[in-house]
Amino acid sequence: MIKHMNEDVKKAITSRRSVRKFLSTEISKDVIEDILTVSARAPSGTNIQPWNVHVLLGESKSKVCKASCDAFYDPKIEKKNERIHYMEDFREPYLARRRKVGWDLYALLNIKKGDYEKTKSFHVQNFNFFNAPVGLIFTIEKDLGWMSWLDYGMFIQNICVAARAYGLDTCPQAAWGQMHKVISPILNIEDGHIIHCGMSLGYEDKNADVNKLKTVREDLNTFTQFHE
Fold first, then answer.
1. For strand 52-56 and strand 169-173, is the pairing parallel, antiparallel, or unpaired?
2. For the chain, how many structural domains are there in total?
3. 68-92 residue pLDDT tens
């Protein structure tokens, strides 16, 4: 007998997507705490639990956003990631997938190839958490190995899925890694820690064109081999 996946679980996973324009509707601290508590059940090798979360609300979020937006436009401020996010030189099949989602997104925003001003105006919205009422900054200790980074990814995925149970949406944001030197003093991030990434959390603005993006996923047979 084939057992079917629980529909609530399936819907939470398949409805998860990156939202890039949020309503300003506030979210209670109890809801945020519940999402993070549930998400902390993520697998963790030898129970290390490498995640550290800075929850930004209200004035604290505004302060971090202003400093980061100012730094984004200031060429004198170094904005560099501590580690390679993806790869130095994109190759196939990754290059084609990256280009596809990039141009699909820019088409929705009416950003033409070579329009650097419009591109920058969109990119800086990362540092306003796309107007979401809650910003999350994730840090990790530098000396933790790659397995801990994988565990961290599962924790972040749990947040994305758990948020759906409350009708909330998210956008994980690698862009925050380049703002480590800018916001570490504001958040008192400990020595030896680096910013892994950030995340916007809130209610989707369903009227925003940018949220009409539908990403393409590869067919099962592309990435799976059954050995019987």
1. unpaired
2. 1
3. 999 999 999 988 888 888 988 999 9
